[in-house]
Fold these 2 entries.
Entry 1:
Amino acid sequence: MLLCIDCGNTNTVFSIWNGERFLCTLRTSTHHGRTADAYFTWFSTLITHYGIEPDITDVIVASTVPRVVWNLRVFSDRFFGVRPIVVGKPECLLPHPPRVDAGTGVGPDRLANAAGAFDRHGGDVVVVDFGTATNFDVVAEDGAYVGGVIAPGVNLSLEALHQGAAALPHVDISQPERVIGTNTVACIQSGVFWGYVGLIQGITTRIKAEYGRSMKVIGTGGLAPLFAQGELLFDTIEDDLTMHGLTVIHAYNTENG
Ligand SMILES: Nc1ncnc2c1ncn2[C@@H]1O[C@H](COP(=O)(O)OP(=O)(O)O)[C@@H](O)[C@H]1O
Ligand SMILES: CC(C)(COP(=O)(O)O)[C@@H](O)C(=O)NCCC(=O)O
Ligand SMILES: [K+]
């Protein structure tokens, strides 16, 4: 079985793929100080809780935080005897290499999103991924990642208001009833929620105009469903797109490595 690890700047997600479906998805906060032993303690407790007895034979990692990769490598080697495939490293083959400026890096989460989106939709796609940052990943007709947009994430925007303005409290995101807020919390929620709706609409419209072909827009990441309510921002929402992309990249490496 394949263990897929998607490590974002906020959360690290483990999913076990049995070749047909994901058996479970486990989430923990991202800390570069977490040791291989700490990962295993957490992992084994949860899979026991869920009654799963996986036989992990392969591991693939996509991490937007370079410092966590070392401990994930040790975790993989020590507990499963497996050398992981790390997306973005030269030894990890990509089904469709990205076309970007020479010398620039592409986030491994974006490479996984591109692979997952192409496998499911066949290209000409924009993925909108709501993580710590909100990424727009453009996937060309042939499956290559060809660029995109990086905007501050929803929670980062809320946190920045709280950090930067003495009288503004920490607020959780939700869809406000009205645009004109009549208290501080409602004003902040309106600014971030409706600001985000405008950002998503505005950027996808401009991407489509610049790209010059019709495109599908796929929402992914924890907050995508919040922005689907009542607004036609996405053609589809796929929570497991990054994980699916990891299974696609793994299969490609198995066949071609
Ligand atoms: N279902 C959800 N509802 C509300 N907030 C969420 C949900 N999923 C994730 N978040 C929040 O969205 C932010 C980004 O989370 P995540 O997608 O895990 O980011 P990353 O992949 O960058 O680690 C975090 O602040 C997280 O707490
Ligand atoms: C844009 C990101 C910070 C998003 O990370 P995340 O929100 O998933 O933690 C990540 O994809 C990244 O570090 N990218 C490198 C630069 C690039 O992709 O162009
Ligand atoms: K992510």
Entry 2:
Amino acid sequence: MIARVLSIAGTDPTGGAGLQADVKSIAAAGGYGMGVVTSLVVQNTRGVQQVHTPDPDFLEAQLRAVSDDVIIDAVKVGMIADQASAAVVVNWLRNLPSNISVVVDPVMVASSGQALADSVSADLLTCATVLTPNVDELAALVGKPAASSRAELIAQAQVLAEKTGALVVAKGGHLADDDRGNTLVNATGELAHAASWFVDTTASHGTGCSLSSALATRLGLGESPQVALEWATSWAHEALQYGEAQAVGTGNGPIDHFHRLRRQAKSGLQNPAVPDKRNRHQPVVKASGEHTRELWEYAGESLDRFGSDGFISALMQGTLSGSQFTFYIEQDDYYLNIYAAVLARLAAAAQSAEERSFWAESVTGCIAVEQGMHAQWNLDPSTVHPSPATLAYTDFLRAETGSDYVVAVAAVLPCFWLYAQLAAFVPDAIPEDHPYKDWVEAYRDEAFQASTARAVQIAEGLLAAASDHQRAAAQQAFWRACQLEADFFAQALLLDTL
Ligand SMILES: Nc1ncnc2c1ncn2[C@@H]1O[C@H](COP(=O)(O)OP(=O)(O)O)[C@@H](O)[C@H]1O
Ligand SMILES: Cc1ncc(COP(=O)(O)OP(=O)(O)O)c(N)n1
């Protein structure tokens, strides 16, 4: 399904805020974007210069042109400059079918300081399914000073929810906290929270417009307000992180609305033949000689794909959605089960008693981790179905560990080595309310790093003694496994993109 979403908003010729940002956000969130202009705004990344508001009749004619022709699944309302425009929009909204979600972003003042509206119509607020005021707008709407803590913000949002009957997103973008996330509130209090860890950026123009449009789209797709807010917050958080790279304007630049789609398009592209041998990542577990040093060079591209620019970054920041995390855990559980069986084959094929017991201990370790997961996350393995990416990895491991021991060791090595590398991505301080704190901290496990060092050492010894032909096959197997490891991690982020 594609949600047909209408934005009713003012314009931004530089495309960072207002209607232009809304239409991009709607597309990025999986909708078909439409736009009715309330005011023509002369603005850029440095600020607002002029506002021209057309006659209310012209606004009404635009609204009718859309609703006479198109079935609308959701509406986002942004800048409404005056009461006459608000009255037209309210009248039009009241004639919509009651099942259409309406997100009202009560825009008052641009972040650059200029006023965009006289005031916000009380009638408009009562037409909303969800309201998305920022800290200052919320304070103005409930007649209180701006909140300086999350608790105060939630209390004010609760007052607004009582007054209007709408759900209110208490947006923490302007709080001074590490978590600038968004809390969904109704008249009785907090319903859900979506974290957004602070991004230090000079490109945050239009974040509020974009968040509310993405939220409207996800509601139009049929998601619950909680799930829709989680999606919109994590998407906006990602878009904030990559805004500066667009180099748009000399002031507060726009967020990158399409970063996620670009990254995903890239992750679908695989270079099947020539590995990029430049690896900018310093290994947490060092190579043990020239052969494993060369293998490490093959891992760079994969690490880029799931480390700093993907799943692991979202996991570390705490912005991975609950459904993405659950999916990952389930697939990991399936994977580890097969991985244990594959390690058992290595134990059987090992060439010394010490190596045999190393692989056998790894089998036991793998099973312990898997069982720990069942207990901690309440997994029922009989209900977990492997995804295509998971199966591609496990099938590959089964195939590559069937004959040559050197190739087999190279094929299982990325699961040790790349996993141990995740320690490099763990932030120094993990906030207490980080949703995946325990999981993320486990990446620093020193016992696992010691096992990885031993696996690397075994691989080095085998490669040193191998024939040229065997060494080339082992390198190929290592590189393929790195790619599959990256695909395995990347898949969770693709899960609920649209
Ligand atoms: N620097 C930031 N770091 C992390 N998240 C942010 C940042 N700026 C904005 N956000 C997220 O985007 C949402 C909307 O941004 P905000 O600045 O609050 O809205 P507005 O643009 O309406 O003032 C915030 O609630 C927050 O979740
Ligand atoms: C036409 C128009 N509408 C709304 C805004 C304000 O956008 P917002 O997302 O709140 O972002 P910043 O003001 O923080 O950039 C706008 N500038 N123009």
